[in-house]
Amino acid sequence: MITQSYAEQFNTYLNHTLCRPLFLRxxxxxxxxxxxxxxxxxxxxxPPYWNKREYHNGGIGLETTYEEYTEDLLKIFSExxxxxxxxxxxxxxxxxxxxxxxxxxIPWRIAIKMMDEQKWELRNDVIWNKxxxxxxxxxxxxxxxxxxxxxxxxxxxxxxxxxxxxxKPREVQIKNGAIISATGVTGIRYKRQLELSTALSEAxxxxxxxxxxxxxxxxxxxxxSDFRMVIRNQQRTTHSNSEALSGRAKELVQKGFYxxxxxxDGSKPSDVWEIIPEDTTNxxxxxxxxxxxxxxxxxxxxxxxxxxxxxxxxxxxxxxxYVAKSLFRKSIGIDLSEKYIDYAERRCNTLF
Length: 352
Fold this sequence. Notes:
about 30% helix, Rossmann fold, elongated, 14 strands, alpha/beta
């Protein structure tokens, strides 16, 4: 039988070097209140959705109104913010709810309150496209997406390792002496456009040719994996023609061209993630809402330092903790249900 307080268990855990997760049974608000301020590097969670299911041991999600549900979550998120380091990130997955045939917009209601009332900074709203989902309604579209919000405490100096989540780019090739980018760009078309341009002066053309040759050399040396060249009156600016709004538009006016460079380590993920939900087969009884492991990987790799501590205040069967351990990060999971905690511990023990 565990006789230590939550705070004592937390402090003992931090002194261990192993990345075995620590699971704490209890109400998230109560447990978090015993954690020291600025002690957690990363938090990701998917709280029980309102009025959706009857979860084991009750708790959040069973409130009479969505307003009560929102307020209960905000109390917990306030504690999450307190225990999170200034360099930390909070990733929140929330699904919406229909009530009397009306979509309530709960994820955004909560996100806006977090920003307005608790002063969280929202970095991304990710669309989780689940690709499938049953829906027998005859008067609305099928719902197959949920939101994953990325919050930080401050917009500068939070931990973010973008290179850990880049996708591997296709290789640059050299054929018959010509340099070919990952998507087949050789520079020949741009050189021809510069030669025929009536919108650039001879001096601008000379500068553009020199810049293009330099870019091709960078491509050859592996400094970039791909590029695009935007030439005055040949291609449109990528965002705006206004010099006041776009630095690229200003560059186009002043120089007659600009370049878009692609990182040699590949592109970063977009804010739409196509991930199939977890299969509920062989799942612990009465837990049907576990999010997929792949949903946690980008957040953990990008925003939890290798020596950091991750937190899930509604850990359920321990998916966040399982992924954290597989990525060699320490983690803490909190849940009301002894049944879920036991399952999560057994699940994480199947790893090294």
